[in-house]
Design brief:
The complex is a heterodimer.
Chain A: H1 6-18, H2 28-38, H3 44-56, H4 64-102, H5 107-135, H6 139-154, H7 159-171
Chain B: H1 2-17, H2 21-25, H3 27-30, H4 43-56, H5 62-72, H6 78-90, H7 95-138, H8 142-167, H9 174-189, H10 194-213
Helix pairs in contact in B: 4-5, 4-7, 6-7, 9-10
Classes of the chains: A mainly alpha, B mainly alpha.
Amino acid sequence: MADIDLIGLFFHFLLLWFLAIGGPSTIFPGVHRYIVDVHHLLTNAQFAELYTLAQVAPGPNAMYVTLIGWHLAGWKGVIATTIPLLVPALTLTLLVGHLNERYPNAPIARAIRRGLMPITIGLVFASATILMRTVNHNGYGYLITFATVAVILRKSWNPLWLFAGGALVGLAGLV
Amino acid sequence: MTTKSRPGESGEASVGALRSPVVAEMGRQTAKSKTAARPTATRWELFIAFSRISLSSFGGAIFWARRELVERRRWLGEREFVDIFTLGQLLPGPNVLNLTVIVGHRFAGWSGALAGVAGFLGWPCLVVIGMGLLYQRYGSLPQAQHALAGMSSVAAGLLLATVIKLATVLPRHWRPWLFGLLAFAAVGILRWPLFWAIGALAPAAIFFAWREQE
């Protein structure tokens, strides 16, 4: 635990958050790769559990990085993983927000938006499949995942009910 | 809902009408300087408003942000809200965090942006740390492991459903779908680092989108 390179973690997360076009789901594969595959700070299962816990908390779903930071190194870990999330918002967003108010219909802005949108969607799809393979170990797991998809696409239920349902199926020892 | 946003919009329109038609078209932006026509908010109000949004938002903050900022406090008109949110989606980072920064800055400058961010991220930070404490103490119990395993499968389903919803807005043209598939394959199958995948694909995608416009 003591040999975690928090400075390296900080700068890697900083780079990742500047790439997080379209939201936190875009960089999920990058966070997973750094924490689990490259530096072995958490096992696949631990990573999935912390991610899931944070999804049940209020607020933006990016907070799983804060939870991972806390789990790895307490308050220092929280700082190393959470401050990078704020930096693009407090620099780039303010700058672009200002430019956008001045030049609302610049063609380059439209081209960037239309060009990046499909890449963002492809990256979120990659996140979904990586998470799906990380968390599901048998047919029941995949069944829960696809049942969730079906419910979300058809009903406007609060996702917390689905989490409660998933917890019950899990407690029954099926997954 | 539409009647609620009308006072702000008519105020902006009257400011725009004093200027040339072209400026009136952009009245939304220029009206910003005429504080008399716009609602105001202090740092404390920003902190409270974004705390409320944050603490009510389970599974997506955007619904609650609209309710608080447009319907309840009427700080933003309907169109303004959509504009700012779209911008927040395009920029890196959590979408509603970007919206928080823009709204906070518009009403109270730098300290307003920080007050909004403190409200929006401070509480979830504390909740998540509380969860971390519980996880460290009880996370290895078999019951907790089983419940979390079931919940994780739900979390994967939520993300997958989000992608399907997002993909419905893609144009019916082969090029965007090709770029989407390449991004998926590079990161999801080949497991390239994100930096290289985006670095390789983004310039080409923006170039083609730019050329298509002309």
